[in-house]
Design goal:
The structure is a homodimer. Chain A is an alpha/beta fold. Chain A has 2 domains: 144 residues, P-loop containing nucleotide triphosphate hydrolases (Rossmann fold), CATH 3.40.50.300; 61 residues, Guanylate Kinase phosphate binding domain (2-Layer Sandwich). The first copy, chain A, is built from 8 helices and 9 strands. In chain A, strands 2-7-1-8-9 form a 5-stranded parallel β-sheet, with helices on both faces. Chains A and B meet through helix 5, helix 6, strand 9, helix 7 and helix 8 of A and helix 5, helix 6, strand 9, helix 7 and helix 8 of B.
Amino acid sequence: MSTRGVLTVISGFSGAGKGTVMKALMNKYPDYKLSISATTRSPRNGEQDGKDYFFLTKDKFESMIEDDGFIEWAKYVDNYYGTPREFVESNLSQGKDIILEIEMQGALIIKEKFPDALLLFITPPDFDELVKRLVGRGTEDNATINKRIARCNEEADVVAKYDYLVINDTVDACVERINEIISNEHFKPKYNEELIKQFSLKSSNFSI
Amino acid sequence: MSTRGVLTVISGFSGAGKGTVMKALMNKYPDYKLSISATTRSPRNGEQDGKDYFFLTKDKFESMIEDDGFIEWAKYVDNYYGTPREFVESNLSQGKDIILEIEMQGALIIKEKFPDALLLFITPPDFDELVKRLVGRGTEDNATINKRIARCNEEADVVAKYDYLVINDTVDACVERINEIISNEHFKPKYNEELIKQFSLKSSNFSI
């Protein structure tokens, strides 16, 4: 029915379990096309080029910026991060549903450029659970946890700009919810203009 | 989580199978509260007061109009039709999800007065199927069918104002789709203001 794909942008509080949800989502629904970000930072242990990120040189990244090759990009400290345009636009026009996992700042830029983008924000069921998950990881010191919570505070003030909050109570339910929301998106009138046109044209001057 | 209920308004092309879908929806999901319209027309064979309509006298209806007792009302030929306000507002504030089955004209009035209302429009999978269903009923003469199709033509031009088109291919799938769309609605930020506030307040000046 729908000819265009849906562009879904997924963000979430640090500690919301976004990584686990994304992995489970892509495992269960492999038809979604996951957009891979580009960066100039060095690969960390185990990270693969073209899977975790496209690892680019600074020169290459900057020439892509000049060629309008990113739908959004930003510089954090000394490194660039961006979403390559070609992958997103070619898949959308082929009717494929694309998922981007991206920080709030980039998500809001994408919403400006692609008003039809569907913005989902993953949250734990409540704040105490967020703290519990951050502490429970055991991988970060208190200063880092405090920094993540401070960021959560900034994000909470802007999260109403997202289309949906997806509450990550259990991973399975969260994955199902995300899949349902994206599926339903296809039933908005803007994705069914051909069908509406058909009813309009064929009913015009109809006589049995 | 959500404190307010969702107000869903369902319309559809004549011949889309709306009646069957509504019946199956309410059977399968009896927690939805179905708003009953009021009218001054006489009950038809088998229609029950308080189930199919609230059958009111003209005096009663007009005094309710004066008391702002309807969230929308209209006069067709010599009869009034309207949606009683009290049922809708009291159930919404109790967090109940309400469903209104109503014509396009009334639906758009409700969307103006309740911008959070969720507008669903049921369509057959394509125009030929619509004609097939109207003819297949065998209950209407050709003039009536032509009138219904002419109305479909008017509605097709405005249907993009609805939030979702729900395609009635099979009744079961259509019922599931409606239920999913309403369920997902509860995950919009506007229905989760308490949760957002909690994250904002508890993360403010947090230190571990």
